[in-house]
Amino acid sequence: MRLLAITPIVVDDAELARRQARYDELAPDGVTVELEHLGGGADHPRALETDDDVRASEAALLARYAAVDPEDWDGYLPDCVLDPLTGTDHGLPRPVFGIGRLAAAFVAGQGARLGAVARNRAIAAELDRRLAEYAVPAVAPTAVLDLSVDDIADDAAWAAAVARTVDGLDCDYVLNACSAVEVAEQADPPYLLDPTATALALLAHRARVTGARR
Question: Region 6-21: what's the mean pLDDT?
């Protein structure tokens, strides 16, 4: 199964390489993810800080995917937990898989309690909207970490902010609302869920069932 991921924001070459290496490490047998850059257009967001940024990112991703030769891919995987293009009439010739939706479904399928953390208020609000759209109940609105876009690549800063936040969440799993953050294993609940690793594991099972391998 070959999936095309595209970043939801403008990133530099070093960050693109870091994210690609993460996909390479997390992708199970039968799944290959190739990550491409959103581009550098004037209307392309450098960070998701506002609702306008979220909407601009989705529009830019649609334009990028619409320009892709679909013959090379089994599906599209936007590099974003907010699942741009899923649940919309995007008209693309390949399925669009949502990292957030797949991760939330993993929790909901167990009948477990879901919480979530996000970098800022705009991302938290969009994630809450998506979870409501998917009819996946959360124990509380997504908690805000108040981090910068640069903290995505800072494992220690992110982990410290999450540790402070999840301490008060009464749930089984906490959805980490960023596709590009390293998540360490935990011995006790609530378990911080790596949405990308979870989504790829579920897509690997889909590939085994459907035979979608190249």
Answer: 97
